[in-house]
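Standup notes, structure subgroup. Blocker cleared on the tetrahydrodeoxyuridine input:
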Amino acid sequence: MTSKEIKIAYIEYESLDQLDPQDRELAEAAIEATKGSYAPYSGFNVGAAVRLDTGEIVKGANQENAAYPSGLCAERTAMFYASATYPDSIIESIAVTASQNGILCDSPASPCGACRQVMAQYQTKGGRPMSIILVGGKKIWKFDKVDDLLPLIFDSI
Ligand code: THU
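Run returned:
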């Protein structure tokens, strides 16, 4: 028997101006994307923005529905739209943020398990690491690859 440990690495920033210009642009696009959120039930407005290898930025926001499971998270809205619209492009990076009552949440918005799995799929499809930037008002976290948010990724089939 061997006891093993998995470590994840990420960088914490205190403000948007500490990010490199490309990441900052993506983080700001995610904040802008919260305006597209339709969240009449939770009041939790999530915005996501993905950067493609072409440099194009695609935005998405959570969409809720009276039949709750029919809604979709911001991250998947953005990634599905990006892949459906630009099927030959690679998603290089995704930024996520959330606000309530028009105010950016202090803590970074952490993607749900289903969104992490979808990130993993597009990372595999793209054949290169997808970085993830989780944007809060008081701190920002950057992960270099989906594996850091979803260790032991399921990609066996
Ligand atoms: N939500 C997202 O958009 N992304 C996540 O990763 C977690 C949750 C949305 C779904 C729902 O509209 C609201 O946040 C409350 O759960």
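Discussed briefly. The helical segments are 21-33, 74-85, 113-126.
Next: hand off to the docking folks.
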